[in-house]
Amino acid sequence: MNSYQLVKNENGNRKFKLELVKNEIPQPKENEILIQVRAVSLNFRDNMVIRGDDPFGEKALGLTPVSDVVGIVVKIGNKVNRDDIKINDRVTCNFCTDWIDGKAKSNYENTLGFPINGGLAEYMILPADAVVIPPSYLSDEEVTTLPIAALTAYHSLVVKGNLSKDQFVLIQGTGGVSIFALQIVHAIGAKSIVLTSSNEKSEKVKSLGANFVINYKETPNWSEKVLEITNGVGVDQILEVVGGDNISKSIDVSRRESNIFIVGALESTKTNLDIIKILAKRINIIGILVGPKKSFDEMNQFFSKHLITPIIEKVYQFNQAEIAYQHLESGAFGKIVIKI
Prior knowledge:
It contains 10 helices and 15 strands. It has helices spanning 44-51, 140-143, 146-160, 176-188, 199-207, 222-229, 246-252, 275-281, 293-306, 321-330, and strands at residues 2-8, 16-22, 32-42, 68-76, 90-93, 123-127, 131-132, 168-172, 191-196, 212-215, 235-240, 254-262, 284-287, 312-317, 335-339. The strands form 3 sheets. Strands 3, 4, 5, 6, 7, 14 and 15 form a 7-stranded mixed β-sheet that branches. Helix 3 packs across helix 4 (176-188). The longest helix has 15 residues, at 146-160. The N and C termini lie close together (12 Å). The model has no long low-confidence stretch (mean pLDDT 95).
């Protein structure tokens, strides 16, 4: 089979580069499933892996990258106990393969795309317990956007945040997680405030149901505008993707007993916070790193009920994987997909 592996890169700002190699088709162990990969989608994490950022570093050498995958079941291990999975079924997989329900069972040592080989290949092994049956109304390209971006948004706002229609949600940016968050907020009927960097993106998020849009380049003191929109009360939930000093602004626009879900750190992983403000407002600051399979299954039912369709900016072919990674690095509205 053909697959991409990470090899050392002697030029540029990445530790690794993609190299197309030929390997034997892997065979599933007794509790595993072999799939023929149909498509994968890229996440910010995939960029961190190929750059060799902490905590990945040199350990990604030789890895087949990419966490999000959809494929067709071609072989099932002889001790797999899943009545809902059979040959020729279309499946995807939970990113944290050992997080089925409740609290995470490990410190993310069993995640796809690192340290477990990912889906940028023609065939892939999946742990049977983590395999998920996706909504039937979605295409392969749409299904593969769900495991990280969609589940991160859903697990934050719905599972942890218990989002209701009387709440305000602040959504930062227009990447994959943020766009899914907007679609979820709109489906529930809550009010959304979206921060974006251009008027073109503003029009796009309005078409997806955004109630209020703030161009943060034109309005650098966007926190004042958020407070104006909420009559000085602040928002109930925040999807924090920027990190760094931006978290202080999120605290400023949070109402009492609100939630700030930290799902990314595009600006910086370090920050100085005013603890008194957090205490006075009784703010919950919650780190989210995707979610369990149970939340994934619940999300699929929610998406099917509301017929939510993922927003894909571009679909690339398998031989265009490097171009897709370059697109990821420059940013996208929604998701980037590679068809295998």
